[in-house]
Amino acid sequence: MVTSDQILLVPLLPFLAFVINILAGRWLQHRAAWLSIAASSVACVIALPVCWAVFTGAHFANQGIWLMLDTVPLKFGYLMDPLSATLLFMVTIVGTLIQIYAAGYMHGDPRYSRFFAYVSLFMTAMLTLVISDNFVLFFMAWEIMGLCSYLLIGFYFEKASAANASLKAFLTTRVGDVGFLLGFLTLFAALGTLNFSEMNTLLAGAHKTHVALNTGLLVMAALFIFCGTIGKSAQFPLHVWLPDAMEGPTPVSALIHAATMVAAGVFLVARSFTLFMVVPNVLPVVIAIGTITAFMAAFIALTQNDIKRILAYSTISQLGYMVTAMGLSGLGAGTFHLITHAFFKALLFLGAGSVIHGAHVQDIREMGGLFKKMPQTAVTFIIAALALSGVPPLSGFWSKDEILLTAFGSGNFLVFSVLLLTAFMTAFYMFRLIFLTFFGSARNDQVHAHESPSLMTVPLWCLAIGSIVIGIPGSPLMHHWFQKFMAHMAHYPEYDPSSFVMTCSIAVAVLGITLAGVIYLKQKHWAAAVAKSFPTFYRFSFNKFYFDEFYSAYIVKPFLALSRRLFGFDETVIDGTVNNTGRATMFLSEIKNWIDKYIVDGAVNFMGTAVYFLNSITKRIQTGFIQNYLLIVFLSVLAFLVFELKLT
Amino acid sequence: MIVLPLSHILIFSLILFAIGVYGALVRRNIIGILISIELMLNAANINLIAFSKYTSLSPETGQIFAIFVIAIAATAAAVGLAIVLALYRVRKTVYTDEVNLLKW
Amino acid sequence: MPILEMAAKFGTYAVMAVVLIFALGVVTLRNLFHCALCLAAALIGIAALYVVLQAEYLAAIQILLYVGAVVTLVIFAIMLTEHIAEKTIRQNNSQSLLAIAGLLGFVTLLTGLILKTPWPVTLTALKAKVSVMGLGKALMGTYVFPFEIISIILIAALIGTVIIAKKDDPQ
Known about the structure:
The complex is a heterotrimer. Chain A is mainly alpha-helical. Chain A has 25 helices and 2 strands. The longest helix of chain B has 32 residues. The model of chain B has no long low-confidence stretch (mean pLDDT 89). Chains in contact: A-B, A-C, B-C.
């Protein structure tokens, strides 16, 4: 592979699909899906060879001048290093499979083509994000992904809950995005460049030669950039949007809110890894937030009843794992878990979508015994759940084990134990979900479930195979090839595999599954009994730690009050100014009218009156009396004699 | 034989003329005005005769002129009196200050 | 003879004074009939003056025409238009003062002028005598044109007078 510029086609093809679907969607109708899928698969086909080349040790980058700012050129380009190659591989495959599933799931929807247009736009943005080589292009793609998320969550915008959820998602991630923007601007102030390669060189060089860097600015930059991750990857405290984002169609939840977009936050931290390495004081913050998120989300998931909500909280919890891994300087571990999580979480969401499509209910208390009626969905779902719970030899086990190993090996025993407890809870709630949904007897007779069409089940099987095998590159079976591969990116500590950690994680997973089986298949009354004996815990778990209520009361309400104030100001002052200008103009015109009536017309009338007045004096000469005229003639002659002839 | 200096006759005719003008300006009765006009014309006649007698190279001129003047005066009086009669018939008055239709 | 001359002068002056008095009577008397009579008297006086000025023919014409025809005409008109019974009506109008003032000025002015001017009194003019035959010759000779015009004027006046003074027939 000599050139790799064809990588530019990878985001461009979905963009073309977006444009065509938006403009000609109504004419295309159900063919819109095929256009999007075709664009996506061709992009996949183009991307995979390049990725393979990078996997075998190549490195590609190219730049073009976007515009000239005076004499400094602004350059945009692509960068294919191990991190972007890995992500590109995952995004193209998972994206294509989910779009094939969505073609079957969204069948019959009146806005079919628009859905695929938005999904294509999202693919464009995600692919641009993955291959971009500087923060500005990264941020632009980040924002477009936020827009697509808003559009897709609010796809069923007739429902008030969907419209509100999309707005909530957009605004909450916006808070994080502002932090991200400030972060990379601060970074620019500190380093003078926004290009990833240049940044890495600068920071790595300084790390080795201890050249003085503006550490204060860099700490600020790292913290602000991490804000972007908190927002986009639904970390504590900005996690509140992800559960409500489940209002969107299930393929959307799978693609955006499980596999790709929420992973972009973790990808950001991975990209800025050298920065975080230079300011180690920031890392405890990262670890703390990640761990709190992981534990809290798992705790909430224990008591939820909506199938998609449980999966949403599971996503939040796993993202917490990845962020913790990044904070523990485990770039390889975090990225590995990101890849494996994408596969099995996407599978879980698609399976849930299949269940919902078949049974037409979302509450797991209404389901039961679906195994016989939807065998393919059930089997793939169980495979994914086993992967998530960390049961070997599935992929999830290897990646989760890496993270636990990093925690244990770096000496953070508190973090290690919390993560272990979270793994136990993860296994528990996932299998609670499975036992309530697929096993036992049907709890609601109205539910008549049926298996989904093959257009939906084939992607399920593909993802299931992926969930099984994708963990192998990072496992001892391939001698931890993946971790070594990622080590080309940056220098970070590696730990020897510990059988203690492995034993702990397997034990915790098995324990969780067994306990779930016991409670939800045999002794069903235990669940209620536990809920009664720990009422406070149950309430906190069930009500999501009252986060939404807190935000609503202390952030949203004051903001709305302020906006009402400003609106009042706008109405009275600004509109008042406009109205008063109008009134002033009317007043001035009244004055002008007065002037016109009395002064101008008065002058004209005065002329007439003056003439009339003079006339009233002069007309008396015409008396009609002849002798007066005669007298005047006589006197005039006399005067003539006196004056002209000079007789006096 | 003429015994008077010319200037005396001229002054006499001037005074007569002035009296005639006074009458024309002052009298209210139209016929009175006409009579005054006769006086004025006579004064002019005296002037003519006096000059023709004292200074003229052809003495008939003055007299012929005077004859013409008398003829004209008679004509004027006749026409004027006809107008007075017509006015009297319409307006039933012969006083000038009652006939001022052309007043403003 | 000097006495004759003096008597002639005195007589001329007396006639002039009488004429002036009668003229004043014409313009000031309240009764219009009296005015007409004063006019007749003044005109006769003027005729006498003509005789003094050796214009006898003119004197005759004056009495014939003026006193005989014009004054008669005036008296006719007075008769036709006047209520002789009314005696208390004012004869002067409102501008008598102004007229008197103006006239006094006029008379003064011209008197001064007359007295100052050196009139070219020639002896030949004084000695000349005019005969009626001479007058007739002049009238038909040198002055025939005005003579014809006068005749036209007379005809026009005649016709005009008749028309103006005619009563309107209610036809």
